[in-house]
Amino acid sequence: MMRLMPGSAVNDLNVPDPAALQAELTDLLQLEHDALPAYSIAIASLRDPVLRDDLRAHRADHERHVEALSALIRDRNGIPLLLPHVPTGFFKLAVQAAGAPGGDRAVLLAFLSNEWQSQEKYARHAARPHGPDVAAVLRRHADDEARHYAWARDALDVMGCGSDTIVGMMANAFSRFHGTTADAVEGAGRVALETVMRTLRAA
Fold first, then answer.
1. If we measure between CA atoms, which residue out of 31, 70, 17 comes closest to residue 189?
2. Cα 33 vs. chain centroid, distance in angstroms?
3. Are 19 and 194 in contact (CB under 8 A)?
4. Which of 10, 38, 84, 127 is positioned for an S-S bond with 33, CB 3.0–4.6 A?
5. How many CB atoms lie within 10 A of CB 160?
């Protein structure tokens, strides 16, 4: 049996220790607070009522994500952080706002660039070892994010901006650059938060 070493972030089941888990859940909660205002801009900017209704349903998923993640954090004696990532949350909002004047296609291209990171990030976290309650929540959220991303891809295909078009390829490249950059910045913030939580627990 593997013994938990002092300061280690895993236990015998390779699940995160309390400090690491609180930092992880807080990071994902901030991801949701990045998404919600961007969704509001996208919904207000879309002209097609069907697309608006679909995005409202997706936004409701994110609102449920906030509730579920906040409950997990409170269950572990933490305080849910009701703030977006700094500075990446504001950049995601700016990306979505930049698409607003360009019509529905531009709105969805901006939406896709933000949603790429969300679905990639949730997929990674859902694949990691967690306790049963956390694992179930992260799997549901990862499924939701994959569905949102697929919806945007399908809608853009109908608009003639599929992955095999020049516009689609440029959008994919930007999404990956934008998402990878945000991941790096947010990952550094998560490590810093974990360090603070570990220090407070040891005090």
1. 31
2. 9
3. yes
4. 84
5. 10
Q: 167 with 109: CB under 8 angstroms?
A: yes
Q: Rounded to an integer, what distance in angstroms lies between the CA atom of residue 138 and that of residue 5? A: 27
166-172: long-range contacts, CB 8 A cutoff, minimum separation 24: 167/109, 171/109, 171/112, 171/113
Cα–Cα nearest to 67, from 121, 122, 25: 25
Distance of CA 22 to CAs 107, 150, 198, Å?
34, 30, 10
Instruction: Evaluate whether 130 touches 15 at the Cβ level (below 8 Å).
Output: yes
Burial code of 41-61, b = ≥16 C-beta within 10 A, e = fewer?
bbbebbeeeebbebbeebbeb
Distance from C-alpha of 109 to C-alpha of 60, rounded to nearest angstrom: 21
What pLDDT, in 10s, does the model give residues 22-73? 999 999 999 999 999 999 999 999 999 999 999 999 999 999 999 999 999 9
Residue appearing with tokens 């959008």: 171
Backbone angles phi, psi at 6, to 5 degrees: -55, 130
User: In the beta sheet, which residues pair with residue 10?
Assistant: 16
pTM tops 0.85: yes
| SS3 call for 11 | coil
